[in-house]
Amino acid sequence: MTATYTWDVFSTLDGYGSFGPEGDWGGYWGKQGPELLEHRAALFDTEQRMIFGATTFRENAEVLCRTDDPNHQDEWNLRMLRMPATVISSTLHDTLGWPNATIVSGDAVNIVSRLKDESDIPLRSQASLSLNWSLMAAGLVDRLQVTIFPVISGRTGTSPILKGAGDFDLELLESRTFDRRTQELVYRPSRR
Fold first, then answer.
1. DSSP reduced 3-state for 55
2. Most CB within 10 Å of its CB: which of 28, 79, 95, 131?
3. Residue 68 clears pLDDT 70, i.e. is over it
4. How many other CB atoms are there within 10 angstroms of residue 192's CB atom?
5. pLDDT at 71
């Protein structure tokens, strides 16, 4: 049985995944609410394997592994930190304190294809833009889960989430609104 692969990514309304130093948005662009955080915790309450590219892994490890007080972190992040993780990188050689992380080097398409064939649990990738663009092009992304925060960051936005993704037809599988402001859209992508 082939494991399901979900690419899970956060975005502004205008498609940016982050903001530059001149932006003063803060995490979640300052728009997280209790419904969103509860939903995220539930998403990460089931057994899954996380898949990261090197840049996103470094960014996450810096935030999630730097404190000894887990009360400063959201529950879904704590759950993600406890999941097994595969980091696909030819430059990273240290797990940066992330428990249950394994670093593998090689072709991402081959690695994820093998993981999908061998895994008995779902695979999920948080952000990792260029990694997931290549996996979408190879037809390995089963679900594209985009959480859209109610901000436009046209002046300060960085990392356009779909800029290098190619052309895809999307079938809407699910949609939700959290805290009367944040949208989650889950799609099944197919190559155009």
1. helix
2. 131
3. no
4. 8
5. 47
Q: Which residues contact 135 (CB under 8 A, 6 or more apart)?
A: 5, 7, 108, 109, 112, 125, 141
Q: What is the pLDDT of residues 154-174, one digit of tens each?
A: 999 999 999 989 999 999 999
For the beta sheet containing 49-53, the strands, ordered from the edge strand earlier in sequence to the opposite edge, are 101-104, 85-88, 49-53, 123-126, 5-12, 143-149, 182-191, 168-178
Burial (CB count within 10 angstroms: exposed 0-12, middle 13-18, buried 19+), residue 24: exposed
| Rounded-to-integer distance, Cα 181 and Cα 178, Å | 6
Residues 187 and 69: beta-carbon distance below 8 Å: no
- Summarize pLDDT for 90-131 with one digit per residue, the tens: 999 999 999 999 999 999 999 999 999 999 999 999 999 999
SS3 186: strand
Contact at 8 Å (CB) between 140 and 5?
yes
How far from 130 is each of 127, 163, 166, CA to CA, in Å?
9, 9, 11
Give the DSSP letter string of 63-117: HHSS-S-GGGS-HHHHHHHHS-EEEE-SS----TT-TTEEEE-S-HHHHHHHHHH
